Fold this protein.
Amino acid sequence: MKKAVVLLNLGGPNKRSEIKGFLYNLFSDKNIITVPSPFRQLIAFLISTSRRKKATEVYDQIGGFSPILENTQNQQNALKTILGEGFDIFIAMRYSYPRMNDIIRNLETDKYSEVILLPLYPQYSTTTSKSSIEEFYKYASKALASKTKNICCYFDDEKFINATAAILEEKLNKYQDNFENITILFSAHGLPKKIVEQGDPYRMQVEKCTELVMQKLNKKIDHIVCYQSRVGPLEWIKPYTEDVIIEKSKENKTIVLVPIAFVSEHSETLVELDMEYNHLAMENGAKGYERVPAQAVNDAFIKSLAEIVIKAGKNDSKFYPKRKCEQKYCGCINQD
């Protein structure tokens, strides 16, 4: 019998007419807006209505839609090539088509001996991996749930780290070990500070992942972990990427930015990083600005995912790998 792998991703509007609906789905998630119904849905309606115009302007800069589905499909095909005929690969987006309930019916069959959930989020967060995994079990039958295994994170997986470091090193090779005037910014999507204080391990995992990448790189280069994409009035985890860019640009540094928490390209990389932050760096005196590409279908990265899937399948526990988080990180869904 075959095994099924479900790639879990955020999603994005596939056309301009879907932008408001995508925003509503995002902000009505209880893991994003942590207030009870019906107030959460009201807040989601207000945010999606007020932010629609600005979001449309962002997506218009990259063709009027998000490329995340196409990019995830490319990863799906690359992973299938490596795993072979014994696996079928599905995609479930959290806030846009194809949704979890769209693909569940394909999994509710005797065709598959096992289902493996693979979040395309290397670092676990309650707002990403947990949200998608919970949604799967919301729709899955008891029979399907009983044969499902969950990959919770791979921020410290050796082959994932090696692949990530190699992509960064390729970008750095042009500087021929002359790194005195370079600062590497490892930029991750931010979170409200209160979510982290409530036990979300995301920040810890982002910082540990960065540490391991720098160890593998084995070069003495100034580097900083920072956080982007904040919205709303709440305080988010710091330092903010735009503040660090301004600071380092005024020191006439060359900024090399690594999207450490993104494994494919979408609006946060193609617009926020490539356009907005590039402009911010140049207008504040940066000597240069370069953005390292996301892992996408990098061969070493896809092979690392394939190995993680195979290890998860051989693992006796429901979760793979074993819990990495200290008990204070109560937001971690992995209890194995």
